[in-house]
Description:
Radius of gyration: 20 Å
Helix content: 40-55%
Number of helices: 16
Largest sheet: 4 strands, mixed
Distance between the termini: 29 Å
Oligomer: single chain
Amino acid sequence: MSGTIMALKSDVEDILLRALQGEPLGYDDCIRLMRSRDVNAMGKVANILKERLHGRRVSFINNLILNYTNICITYCKFCAFYRPPRHSEGYTVSVEECIRRVGTAKALFNIRQVLMQGGHNPDLGIEYYESVFRAIKARFPDVAVHALSPSEIDMIARVERSSTREVLARLKDAGLDSIPGGGAEILDDEVKSVISPLKIRSDEWLRIMEEAHMLGIPSSATMMYGHVESIEQRARSLMRIMELQKRSGGFMAFIPWNFEPNNTEMQREGLVRYPSGGMELLKMISVSRIMLNGLIDHVQSSWLTNGVGMAQLALHYGADDFGGTLHGEEVVSATGARATTLTEERIVSAIRQVGMRAVERDNMYNIIRYFD
């Protein structure tokens, strides 16, 4: 393996060899990887590291995305989904309608998870979420509740004038199983001051995630790249996730995804005109696998923002998870970028087309079905 990398005469050869030997990598290594144009060499090493863990298995989950409200008071410049309070297009899904949607998705698609995310709605108290979670668990006990990013948890705590730890404990008692990684974007407050000045700061995101992990609520971690951030800020963001993982061990997966500027304020202001593209995705997938080796086992291929074809390529660059079927998704679809739902059959076919074996997983990344 080392001979293969050395033959490529890569500018990051020394880092790649150390990664193959299982040595921990640091901030300077991350910077060099992100600056390198040798995506193929990084991809080869990332794929070796992935196959050591997962062989040629690629997982996915059948899930429903329940965007329960688009009313939001954080007004993030990268978001085309939100509507301010009292806007004519604003909505909040009732508890009854939430349960109806879960029931329909369960009947039609045998979903294993409901991913519940929405805006920062100051009119919603914690009882709304507790009612939804309890009803889901009562009627569909085998459907996992993967819900509420740290910034939404913070919003609930502010509405309740409570601590985020108390909110997390109550939501866990109501049926919350795990937390998605939204709201991280880039964990650098200089970036956040530009793209989401009213959202929680980086330290708060990390603190809430650590509180969740300490309460036994695992989560995913994300990075939205390709907007106003520098390579150094990107690398620091990844390092902060790595540092928390070393303390808590609560991150199950890492999901890098590129910013889609269409229909956003950032595009209107001229901050970002175009998405960063497929080669940047493959680099970020590869760097994520290499840097996170031994810390976070799962890296998602991000078909939602890059399309199925790029997600298939990403499976050869270190990704081992295809994500979810995403029935009902509304946030990315608000950009008009592409269709945001895939069927189980389409995902299995996409995985098989690149010579890999599809497996269905639950929200904790346990394999529950093989597709032979």
